[in-house]
């Protein structure tokens, strides 16, 4: 396993930046999740590390070695593609065994069979081993695609939205499995998603990308409690952080343009009046949609609250985030 | 009251006729629409086929329509299948088919593989390569006779340049051993681009991401070729072979222009032989039997082949 380091990596597609001066260190044995909307540069980052795409400027290091000029095979990376990319005329078994059959590895046949069986078990596709890759559902293809990476012990695993087309139950199963595999093997894993639950539950570190720039890198907790901008703050948290003009509450610091309030930063029971617009009972929690001076605020309250639509509730910010006009955090 | 043409037609239709038209079922209307096509198909396709089969059991001659037609049973078939000359044309056809298909597939695939690489001007090259295919076969046959001309022919000079032989010392068309290759070369020149286009379609249908996955899985270029490229292009390649096979089984114009079936009958393909029997010797019954034999052969081979093709596609 190895540390992955990017220094000043820039990649342009025409006039647009795919990646803009990204510098980031993925520590050895860490599980790094890249977050951001479509086009933020998440997949491009993976392709830079894998060597499928090359940076215009900047360098990629894996295990301390400069990867310039090295092919994906030489870099020893395993990648899970968003579009699965299975070998269509091969069976699931042959697909899973494919990376092990590389002459570089010289894996004995019995060892290949054992590993394939083990991975198939983990991913719950043992019963499909003899199916053609084309005769699978989307979720099954995605699992084979993950399996094809997991049969190997590469320097780095690169996964591009590997759980996106699975159903909820399987997704939460595999979240646990993946995290377990990574933690036990000490593998370095770079993982792209826009599902913040995956980021919060699996990541040791989260990188937030925006239009090709790395805006924040840190532990999920750090990111949640200490976001550098409105954008970074909006990536994590369910329900989303509420962003209001800074002057709706008294006490905003100099230069603050907006105030960001996560549910736990809204103290209920004292302060100013807000009207309950809607009460969403989710079982383990209840969400309140509040109308406050023409702004909508979504927060969380006691699961068994007696509040009903039209009621009035008093709210007050506690330890809120303040952002300047450009969206940067100032307090 | 509306006055659209349809309303006027409706009003002008006698009540009895109108009732009859309105009473037509969907099925009847469907038949009315399909009937002209079916009639045409029967008239120009099915009827001649059946009539040919009928004639193949007679000694009918179309240039003597007033003679009595005699039933000869299977005698025509027997005579054809025991005729050494017929077997020789069959051999010439097999030689032509096997070599044209082999060469066109090999060269066509190789060209497609090169053209599929991303380089400047590959569209221009595709257009240039595809050019021979757009010419008329008779024209191609005609100008290859000039290329093969021993005294002035470019082909002989090129061969002479590389081998040091005397350019006037051999004639591709006049020599009994070279003539079968002369038609193979001309046909390959003309139709390789077609095979290339089909292979190119196959190569372009393979997503880049599969190669990228193989790249990460550390498969060598050679292994990528044999485990990804070949299996995924194979159905396209087989389709090209089917098209070329059927086309070349009935090859006529190019070869007639180029060699006229000679020297002797070394390049007399079955289609040329059949045409002579039917429209030069006017042995209509005999040539009908000949045609039926060819039809069954092509149909049988094509059916077996299409089955194999479908199996490959389902893999």
Describe the protein in words.
The complex is a heterodimer of chains A (about 325) and B (about 325). Chain A is of the alpha+beta class. Chain A folds into 2 domains: about 5-230, Rossmann fold (3-Layer(aba) Sandwich), CATH 3.40.50.300; about 240-325, Nucleic acid-binding proteins (OB fold (Dihydrolipoamide Acetyltransferase, E2P), Beta Barrel), CATH 2.40.50.140. Chain A is built from 9 helices and 17 strands. A 6-stranded mixed beta sheet of chain A has the order 6-7-8-3-9-10, with helices on both faces. Chain A has a 4-stranded antiparallel beta sheet with strand order 2-1-4-5, with helices on one face. A 4-stranded antiparallel beta sheet of chain A has the order 15-14-13-16, with no helix packed on it. In chain A, helix 6 links the parallel strand 7 and strand 8 (about 190). Chain A is globular and about 70 Å long. In chain B, helix 5 packs parallel to helix 9 (about 180-205), helix 5 runs antiparallel to helix 11 and helix 11 (about 220-250) runs antiparallel to helix 14 (about 285-315). The longest helix of chain B is centred in the N-terminal third of the chain and has 32 residues, at about 85-115. The interface of A and B includes residues 72, 76, 81, 83 and 86 of A.
């Amino acid at each position: 396993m190895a540390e992955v380091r990017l220094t000043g990596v820039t990649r342009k597609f025409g006039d647009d930046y795919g990646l803009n001066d990204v510098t980031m260190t993925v520590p050895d044995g860490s599980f790094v999740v890249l977050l951001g909307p479509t086009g933020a540069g998440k997949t491009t980052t993976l392709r830079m590390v894998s060597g499928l795409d090359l940076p215009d400027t900047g360098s990629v290091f894996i295990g301390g070695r400069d990867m310039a000029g090295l092919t994906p095979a030489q870099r020893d990376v395993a990648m899970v593609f968003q579009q699965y990319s299975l070998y269509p005329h091969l069976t699931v078994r042959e697909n899973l065994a494919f990376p092990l059959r590389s002459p570089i590895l010289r894996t004995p046949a019995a060892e290949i069979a054992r590993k394939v069986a083990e991975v198939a078990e983990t991913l719950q596709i043992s019963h499909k081993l003899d199916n053609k890759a084309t005769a699978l559902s989307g979720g099954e293809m995605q699992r084979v695609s993950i399996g094809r990476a997991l049969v190997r012990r590469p320097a780095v695993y690169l996964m591009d939205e590997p759980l996106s087309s699975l159903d909820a139950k399987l997704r939460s199963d595999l979240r646990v499995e993946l995290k377990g595999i990574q933690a036990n093997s000490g593998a370095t894993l770079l993982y792209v998603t826009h599902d913040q639950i995956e980021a919060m539950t699996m990541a040791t570190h989260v990188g937030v990308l925006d239009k090709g720039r790395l805006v924040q890198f840190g532990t999920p907790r750090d990111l949640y409690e200490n976001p550098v901008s409105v954008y970074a703050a909006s990536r994590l948290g369910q329900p989303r952080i509420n962003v209001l003009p800074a002057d709706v509450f008294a006490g905003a610091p100099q230069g603050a343009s907006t105030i960001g309030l996560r549910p736990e930063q809204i103290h209920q029971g004292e302060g100013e009046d807000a009207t309950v617009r809607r009460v969403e009972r989710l079982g383990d929690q209840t969400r309140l949609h509040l109308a406050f001076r023409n702004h909508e605020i979504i927060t969380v309250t006691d699961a068994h609250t007696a509040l009903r639509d039209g009621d009035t509730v008093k709210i007050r910010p506690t330890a809120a985030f303040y952002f300047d006009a450009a969206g940067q955090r100032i307090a | 009251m509306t006055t659209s043409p349809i309303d006027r037609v409706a009003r002008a239709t006698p009540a009895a006729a109108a009732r009859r038209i309105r009473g037509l079922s969907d099925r009847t209307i469907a038949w009315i629409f399909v009937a002209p096509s079916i009639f045409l198909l029967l008239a120009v396709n099915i009827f001649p086929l059946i009539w040919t089969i009928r004639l193949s059991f007679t000694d009918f001659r179309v240039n003597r329509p007033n003679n009595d037609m005699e039933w000869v049973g299977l005698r025509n078939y027997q005579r054809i299948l025991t005729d050494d000359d017929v077997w020789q044309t069959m051999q010439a056809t097999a030689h032509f088919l096997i070599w044209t298909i082999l060469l066109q597939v090999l060269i066509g695939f190789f060209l497609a593989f090169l053209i599929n690489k991303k380089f400047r001007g590959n569209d221009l090259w595709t257009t240039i390569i595809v050019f021979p295919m757009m010419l008329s076969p008779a024209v191609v046959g005609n100008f290859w006779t000039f290329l093969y001309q021993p005294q002035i022919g470019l082909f002989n000079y090129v061969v002479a340049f590389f081998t040091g032989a005397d350019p006037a010392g051999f004639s591709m068309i006049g020599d009994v051993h070279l003539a079968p290759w002369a038609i193979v070369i001309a046909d390959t020149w003309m139709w390789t681009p077609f095979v290339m286009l089909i292979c190119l379609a196959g190569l372009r249908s393979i997503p880049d991401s599969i190669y990228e996955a193989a790249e990460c899985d550390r498969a060598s270029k050679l292994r990528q070729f044999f485990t990804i490229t070949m299996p995924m292009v194979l159905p396209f390649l087989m389709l090209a072979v089917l098209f070329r096979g059927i086309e070349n089984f009935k090859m006529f114009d190019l070869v007639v222009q180029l060699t006229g079936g000679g020297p002797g009958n070394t390049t007399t393909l079955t289609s040329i032989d059949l045409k002579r029997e039917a429209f030069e010797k006017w042995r209509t019954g005999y040539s009908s039997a000949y045609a039926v034999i060819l039809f069954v052969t092509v149909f049988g081979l094509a059916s077996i082949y299409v089955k194999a093709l479908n199996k490959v596609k389902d893999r």
